[in-house]
Design goal:
237 residues, six-stranded mixed sheet, four-stranded antiparallel sheet, binds adenosine-5'-triphosphate, binds magnesium ion
Length: 237
């Protein structure tokens, strides 16, 4: 793995109105790394992701992507620089078809001229089989594949996934984790994944940071979560 830092976050603070939710997070994500952000409900995991993509304004601190400061750029510009985001709940257009959802991914990404749908179908063959199906009628696992596939269409350098295991059958969760890993292994993509699901974390992540009250309070290996006492402390299970 390259030792180069792709995303660097320094003393990041943000929140809603005047209420601070992220209270000084610093972290560095290396190119090609899969970082899991874990922590109990309501600690600010989603707010952290939304601050990085530009949906929640910063109170202070710095975010750099490949050395470029992005914390003051609008969300669309950050997306063009290569930050892809799959929101909690997936954010699909449920009444549109799979193919239409995928084509919309072209509008948010960095380099549309390089759009290569075959590359997406290679990771997610089910999407090619179901191009004309209405997205909302697919299973949770298939919808999550579509949400990730749609982001890949935009050719991001880093993808932020917020609880991809949510609403997915337990027997599919691990395979979603394996696909995330395969995307990284084959394409060198960098991934930040917010998760509470042990199987998905262990199938995908290289490293876990633990968030509490808008701060990073610990860093652990995914293997360490195999200890039920550790998992109970840090995950909502
Ligand atoms: N749009 C909003 N306006 C005001 N407060 C918000 C908003 N969104 C979230 N919050 C509050 O910010 C805090 C952190 O919420 P956030 O959604 O970031 O947590 P989370 O760690 O992602 O939780 P979960 O595990 O349930 O997804 C919570 O207290 C929540 O009530
Ligand atoms: Mg959340």
């Amino acid at each position: 793995m390259s030792a180069k830092t792709l995303l660097n976050v320094t003393d990041l603070r943000s929140g809603y109105g005047r209420v601070g939710i992220i209270n000084g997070i610093s972290l560095a994500v290396k190119e090609g790394e899969i970082l899991a952000v874990i922590g109990r409900n309501g600690v600010g995991k989603t707010t952290f992701m939304k601050t990085i993509i530009g949906e929640v304004p910063i109170f202070g601190g710095k975010i750099t992507l490949n050395g470029i400061e992005v914390q003051k750029l609008p969300a669309a510009q950050r997306a063009q620089l290569g930050i892809g985001y799959v929101p909690q709940g997936r954010g699909l257009f449920n009444s549109l078809t799979v193919g239409e959802n995928l084509r919309l991914g072209k509008l948010v990404g960095g380099k549309p001229q390089q759009t290569n749908y075959d590359r997406v179908y290679d990771f997610f063959p089910v999407l090619k089989e179901r191009l004309t199906q209405i997205a909302g009628t697919m299973s949770g696992g298939q919808q999550q594949q579509l949400a990730i596939g749609r982001i890949l269409v935009g050719n991001p350098r880093i993808i932020l996934l917020d609880e991809p295991s949510e609403g997915i059958q337990p027997n599919i969760v691990q395979s979603i984790g394996e696909i995330i890993r395969r995307i990284r292994d084959r394409e060198g993509l960098t991934v930040i994944i917010v998760e509470q699901n042990l199987d998905l974390i262990q199938a995908s992540a290289d490293r876990c940071i633990v968030v509490e009250k808008g701060l990073v309070v610990d860093e652990i290996s995914p293997e360490a979560l195999a200890d039920p006492a550790v998992a109970k402390k840090y995950l909502a299970i």
